[in-house]
């Protein structure tokens, strides 16, 4: 997940990578060495990646009615997500309007209670090869996230459109792209990218991290690095508990117990 540590330097542009000043220096060196290994193993690859022929992407697209219905049920219950800077521990670089996020998965583990509201969404995400962590991401009207980049080449960023009004979009290496409702974009976030919502309605996405597909030996090494990065980077370890506590605080007095899943066409 993209996170700006609380002690990020003033004046930095966009959210810095998670492995930053609040992670052990040894982890930063390990990640950097892993990045170099990945570049050697993979060579030049298009960014974003083509998912047109990927069966898992087609399944995600087909699941959009159920995923959208779960989001609408959450909204109709009067529940709220925390601001990104509150959940993730510091400013995230968004400008002009708000950004709200909620954790669904961390290292393939469901983050309750929020994940209980999105059972089919989580099941669909877990069917994606290499799925690691995922969140619901909501940009308020007018939100701009300037160009920034991550520092961990061991993962790829997956975006999935739940509710994407005209005027919302992204760029990767300066090329503007749209993620429509039910559409998937998979890209390397170590390259410059930006996002915006220049509409008068919230833009709702799933934002996820998947392990980068690599040759067998490189993939095994990368998996070990990603596991170490998770367990030895302080912010990662406490995110699920922090998310659960913030959900309870924000939604005190609301209907906080998720209803059983229902077909999107069944009566509400």
Task: Using brief descriptors, characterize the structure shown.
268 residues, alpha+beta, Jelly Rolls, six-stranded antiparallel β-sheet, four-stranded antiparallel β-sheet, 7 helices, 10 strands, globular
Contiguous low-pLDDT stretches (5 residues minimum) are 1-22, 264-268
Coarse shape: globular
CATH architecture: Sandwich
CATH T-level fold name: Jelly Rolls
Overall number of domains = 1
Q: What pattern of helices and strands is seen along the backbone?
A: HHHHEEHEEEEEEEEHH
Structural class comes to alpha+beta
Q: What's the main sheet like?
A: 6 strands, antiparallel
Number of β-strand runs: 10
Strand content: 15-25%
What's the mean pLDDT score?
87
Strands side by side in the biggest sheet: 2-1-3-10-5-8
Helix proportion: 25-40%
Number of helices: 7
* Estimated radius of gyration: 18 Å
Please give a structural write-up:
It is a single chain. By secondary structure, this protein is of the alpha+beta class. It has one domain: B-lactam Antibiotic, Isopenicillin N Synthase, Chain (Jelly Rolls, Sandwich), CATH 2.60.120.330. The chain has seven helices and ten strands. The chain has helices spanning 25-42, 55-62, 64-76, 84-88, 119-126, 216-232, 234-250, and strands spanning 99-106, 109-110, 131-139, 144-148, 155-163, 168-172, 175-177, 184-187, 193-197, 203-211. The strands form two sheets. The chain has a six-stranded antiparallel beta sheet, with helices on both faces. A four-stranded antiparallel beta sheet has the order 4-9-6-7, with no helix packed on it. Strand 1 (99-106) and strand 2 (109-110) form a beta hairpin. The longest helix is centred in the N-terminal third of the chain and has 18 residues, at 25-42. It starts with 24 loop residues before the first helix and ends in an 18-residue tail after the last helix.
């Amino acid at each position: 997940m993209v996170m700006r540590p609380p002690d990020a330097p003033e004046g930095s542009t966009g959210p810095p990578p998670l492995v930053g000043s609040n992670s052990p220096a040894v982890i930063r060196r390990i990640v950097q060495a892993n990045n170099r290994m990945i570049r050697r193993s993979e060579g030049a690859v298009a960014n974003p990646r083509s998912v047109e022929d990927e069966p898992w992407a087609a399944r995600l697209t087909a699941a959009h009615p159920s995923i959208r219905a779960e989001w609408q049920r959450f909204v109709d219950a009067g529940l709220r997500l925390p601001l990104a800077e509150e959940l993730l521990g510091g400013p995230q670089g968004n400008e002009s309007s708000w950004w709200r996020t909620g954790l669904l998965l961390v290292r393939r583990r469901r983050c309750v209670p929020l994940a209980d509201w999105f059972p089919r969404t989580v099941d669909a995400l877990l069917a994606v090869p290499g799925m690691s962590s995922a969140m619901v991401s909501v940009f308020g009207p007018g939100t701009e996230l300037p160009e920034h980049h991550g520092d961990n080449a061991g993962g790829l960023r997956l975006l999935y459109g739940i509710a994407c009004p005209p005027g919302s979009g992204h760029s990767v290496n300066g090329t503007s792209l749209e993620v429509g409702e039910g559409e998937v974009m998979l890209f390397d976030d170590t390259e410059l990218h930006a996002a915006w919502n220049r509409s008068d309605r919230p833009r709702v996405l799933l934002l996820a991290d998947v392990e980068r597909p690599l040759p067998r030996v490189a993939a095994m090494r990368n998996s070990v690095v990603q596991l170490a990065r998770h367990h030895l980077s302080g912010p990662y370890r406490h995110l699920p508990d922090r998310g659960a506590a913030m959900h309870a605080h924000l939604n005190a007095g609301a209907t906080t117990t998720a209803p059983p899943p229902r077909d999107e066409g069944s009566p509400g």
